[in-house]
């Protein structure tokens, strides 16, 4: 089983790992696109004002540009510990077993998708960003992240031997590389409305339950119904929907 998480805009600082080594990341077939985007992001960050405009950052987030400028020189940390925020608080990755962590991966505009233990630096780049190409015949053009990734992420995820894939990424990141046949999740209130504020919290709880169960060799999770059973065992009000898990929470 592989559980795909959305990234977060907020990330932890520092780390004890050596600077970014793109060749060490999971899914090495994504290396060329990763390198292209990373080089363009660093080049853009040499001009703080241009970078802040392209990334749509306010004055209080100027240090995010500095982080991007230091992409290849700053310390790294495991991806699952680098991303922070509501979903990752609920996931509580630090208390997961190594086997459970191994079932998790995170979508990323910069890296496409990274494994839980892939060592990455702090950075800022969202799935909706457009950054200019800094060299080549199309220098200056700013294609979308979706255009830059093309079918690379989809191929990487579908050609691997991952078993059941549960895709908890948000729409923006799903669009960077959809996974046909993956199980999705929707969080609804008891009156049928889509949850917005606590959506990430409940997806974090769901991801934890699935990773914990998948990390236990005695439990086989090979279908939507199996995944729903795991969610229920973890105390979530879950049921099978059209191709995905529906988690219901109080209105």
Q: Estimate what percentage of residues fall within beta strands.
A: 5-15%
Quote the distance from N terminus to C terminus: 31 Å
What is the gyration radius calculated from CA atoms?
Answer: 18 Å
Which strand order does the major sheet show?
4-3-1-6
Largest sheet: 4 strands, mixed
Tell the overall outline: globular
Please write the string of helix (H) and strand (E) elements.
EHHHEHHHEEEHHEHEHHEE
Structural class: alpha/beta
Could you characterize the architecture of this molecule?
By secondary structure, the protein is an alpha/beta fold. It has one domain. It has helices spanning about 30-45, 50-55, 60-70, 80, 85-90, 100, 145-150, 150-160, 170-175, 200-215, 225-235, and strands at about 1-5, 75-80, 105-110, 110-115, 120, 165, 185-190, 240, 245-250. The protein has a 4-stranded mixed sheet with strand order 4-3-1-6, with helices on one face. Helix 10 (about 200-215) crosses helix 11 (about 225-235). The mean pLDDT is about 95.
Blueprint (SSEs and pairs):
Layout lengths: L1 E4 L25 H14 L3 H8 L6 H8 L7 E2 H4 L3 H6 L6 H4 L2 E5 L3 E4 L3 E2 L24 H5 L2 H8 L5 E3 L3 H4 L9 E6 L9 H16 L9 H10 L4 E3 L3 E6 L2
Parallel strand pairs: 1-3, 1-6, 7-9
Antiparallel strand pairs: 2-5, 3-4, 8-9
Helix pairs in contact: 10-11
What key attributes describe this structure?
globular, four-stranded mixed β-sheet, single chain, 251 residues, alpha/beta, three-stranded mixed β-sheet
